[in-house]
Amino acid sequence: MKFYLFFICFFILSLEITFSQTSDSVVYTKKVEFLRKLKSTKEYIYPIRFKNSNGFLDIPLGVYPEKEQIILKIDENIFVRFDGTGFIFQLTDLLDSIAKFKRIDRTVNFNYNIGSFHFISGKDMYNYGGYGFWKSNGLIRKYDPKSREWSVIKTNEEIPQQIFKINNPWFDLQKNILYLPYRVDIHAGLKENIYQYGKITPIAYTFNLKTGDWSAIGKSSDQTINTLKDATLFLSTYRGLMVLAFEELYLFDFINNRILKSNDNVFAQLYMRITDANAVYHLNKMLYTISRQTGRIDSVQLDLDVFQSIDKPIYEPIRNYTWAWIAGAIICIVAMALLTKRWVDRKISSIKLSNPASKNFKFEFSDIEKSLIDMLLEKSKSNQTATISEINYVLGVKDKNIGLQKKVRSEIFNSVNEKFKLISDWDEPLVQSIRSESDKRYFEYMIRKDIIKEAEKVLQS
């Protein structure tokens, strides 16, 4: 008698589950109606969330009963992932009344990504963020079929997302861009009380899946924060993130940076009741519901085009003023150049003769200028050149800073050369420079031999 009772119990249990602790565990389910619907659907379907435990696969062992289940579809392949873990089961057989799932991963760790956001790109499965070990994280993980493990994608920053009460990201499958309306940090290990509930940073971000980079795109609007932090239900659609907040349905259109709202309050209440006992997904203007108890699928019309803008942006874009800075810099440089030229022209004009053609006009060199010419004449007569240090000594600026030394030398040279041209018959400058033989970075100064006599004549007169 005991043998028959054991056989009957084993047979009943085997209708729902055949399970072991290995990574090749096998699970059976009778909830097959919507599986056939999913397999026949060609369009992209955003991950489907069963928010109740044992919502789809019933595994009464270990951590499985307490975890939400997420259904992911890649082409005709259907997977079930258990939230807060890396455990993935793949549909391997689908019969008329029963479906077989087999665990394909071999991950061990769990409770490090509770409440993570799931998305699919091409043939790859990803999950982002989540909570575990007293804090939230902003890691993006990808499942690797070869190693059968989840790997972390290296990014330029770590930006945590909102995990309570809803997820707030949205994935643009066309551009492989993940949108985040604002960041939320939870850290129970810190004293500041705001971190226990989540510290909101009102900055909107995008994550480029191709480059692995986060980018700040703007300041989150108050409407965005107030709506999403108090929302109770969320659903990813091809138009954006749909949420239920304050018993009204909102649609966050990230591509066009606008918030829309449905004016059908009756449908909002219906949506709230539907999601209590069903998983839902949106496709082709229809909202499909999957019964948690039976796996039967039903639908109700939900045209996202009826949502109307509330004239509020999701975020205020960051303005790029680079062009203005460049233009301003160019204007400043041009203005400084013009002012400098004007100042130089005035200096030159102040030392010019009122009638430059007259050679009889008396024009005297200053004492410093005479000292400079005397020293250069002496050097040039003995086939030597004067160094910058010797010039600075004669001009009385040897102990001044380099900038002032250079300025004084330039002014004196210009003055001497200009006066020499005006009172002599030479068009060449009196003081000339050549590269130093010992160090080509520096100049040395001289008076050409063919000008020495003219220089002595001018200096004496």
General form:
elongated
N-to-C CA distance: 142 Å
**Spatial strand sequence of the major β-sheet:** 1-2-7-6-5-4-3
How many structural domains? 3
Percentage of residues in DSSP E strands: 25-35%
CATH fold-level assignment of the largest domain: Neuraminidase
CATH class of the largest domain: Mainly Beta
Low-confidence stretches: 1-21, 353-362
Q: In CATH terms, what is the architecture of the largest domain?
A: 6 Propeller
Give average pLDDT, whole number.
Answer: 86
Extended strand count? 28
Structural class call reads alpha+beta
Give the helix tally: 10
Q: What this model shows, in words?
A:
This protein folds into three domains: 13-317, Neuraminidase (6 Propeller); 320-351; 357-460, Arc Repressor Mutant, subunit A (Orthogonal Bundle). Helices cover 29% and strands 30% of the residues. It is built from ten helices and 28 strands. The chain has helices at residues 2-16, 33-40, 194-197, 222-229, 265-277, 322-351, 367-381, 388-395, 402-423, 452-460, and strands at residues 17-18, 26-29, 48-50, 69-74, 77-82, 88-94, 99-103, 117-121, 124-132, 135-144, 149-153, 170-172, 177-180, 183-185, 199-201, 203-208, 213-220, 233-237, 240-245, 248-253, 258-261, 278-283, 286-291, 297-301, 308-309, 315-317, 432-435, 443-446. The strands form seven sheets. Strands 1-2-7-6-5-4-3 form a seven-stranded antiparallel β-sheet. Strands 12-13-16-17-26 form a five-stranded antiparallel β-sheet. It starts with a helix and ends with a helix.
Please describe the structure with a list of short key phrases separated by commas or semicolons.
seven-stranded antiparallel β-sheet, Neuraminidase, 461 residues, 28 strands, 3 domains, 30% strand, single chain, 10 helices, five-stranded antiparallel β-sheet, Arc Repressor Mutant, subunit A, alpha+beta
